[in-house]
Amino acid sequence: MVKYYYRNLRGNVMQELSEFKPGCWVHVVAPSETELERLTNQFDLDTGNLEDALDEDEMSRLEAENDQTYIFIRFAHKESDGS
After folding, report:
1. Are 15 and 5 in contact (CB under 8 A)?
2. Which of 19, 47, 63, 64 could bridge 70 with an S-S bond, Cβ 3.0-4.6 Å?
3. Band of the pLDDT at 80, cuts 50, 70, 90?
4. Planar angle of CA 48, 3, 59, nearest 5 degrees
5. Torsions phi, psi of 49, nearest 5?
6. CB–CB of 64/46 below 8 Å?
7. Is residue 49 within 8 Å of 63, Cβ to Cβ?
8. Residue 2: its pLDDT value, please?
9. DSSP of the chain, one letter per residue?
10. Beta carbons of 59 and 72 less than 8 angstroms apart
């Protein structure tokens, strides 16, 4: 799933966009192979970093390369079965 969110500097409301707009947050969760390929091509992203992001054992971190910043986030959450 790929979603785009944007908030202008004067507003305090985050809005979901239907497509990418410069300055927006690109939120990616459990992407399909097609979505990964599209992200890699559209934003000239490093395939290795995208693969790292999908690794459940990868640590949370911020990584900057050239003019791109990758933010890896891991957090605890309750599964639907209560575990």
Report:
1. yes
2. 63
3. confident
4. 40
5. -65, -35
6. no
7. yes
8. 95
9. -EEEEE--SS----EEESS--TT-EEEESS--HHHHHHHHHHHT--HHHHHHHH-TTPPPEEEEETTEEEEE-------TT--
10. yes
Backbone φ and ψ of 41, nearest 5°: -75, -45
User: For residue 69, what are the β-bridge partners?
Assistant: 64
Q: How far is CA 29 from CA 2, 9, 67, 70, in A?
A: 7, 26, 23, 14
Structure tokens at 51: 């693969």
Name the residue type at position 64.
Answer: A
Residue type at 62 in one-letter notation? L
Q: Are 4 and 16 in contact (CB under 8 A)?
A: yes
- The whole-model pTM stands at 0.71
